[in-house]
Amino acid sequence: MAIRVLASQFVSDAQRLNRLKWISKPQGRFDISHAIVIEAIYQWAVSLDEIGQVFESHKLYEEFFEFWGVADTRMPQVTQARNRRVELDSQ
Questions:
Q1: Does this model's pTM top 0.85?
Q2: 72/76 Cα distance (integer angstroms)
Q3: Which of 13, 53, 63, 80 could pair covalently with 48 via S-S, beta carbons 3.0-4.6 A apart?
Q4: CA 35, 58, 42 angle in degrees (round to 5)?
Q5: Is residue 13 domain-resident?
């Protein structure tokens, strides 16, 4: 949830890049649960996609699926990530 709130606060590309830096380096916060880290990977992929860094976002979508696998396939994030990965694979 905190990642979604964070994602909604930033609009410019520079702010998105700063958000990506924050998400990608949690500074050793071991209290972050596994599910939140997986959500952060998904949000990071979406953010990179938004600013046109398609190759990097594709890698993160793949990493998201490595963690998530086939669990909770009905979750909106999983469905959206799967659809976007298919789009990127077809390009």
A1: no
A2: 9
A3: 53
A4: 20
A5: no
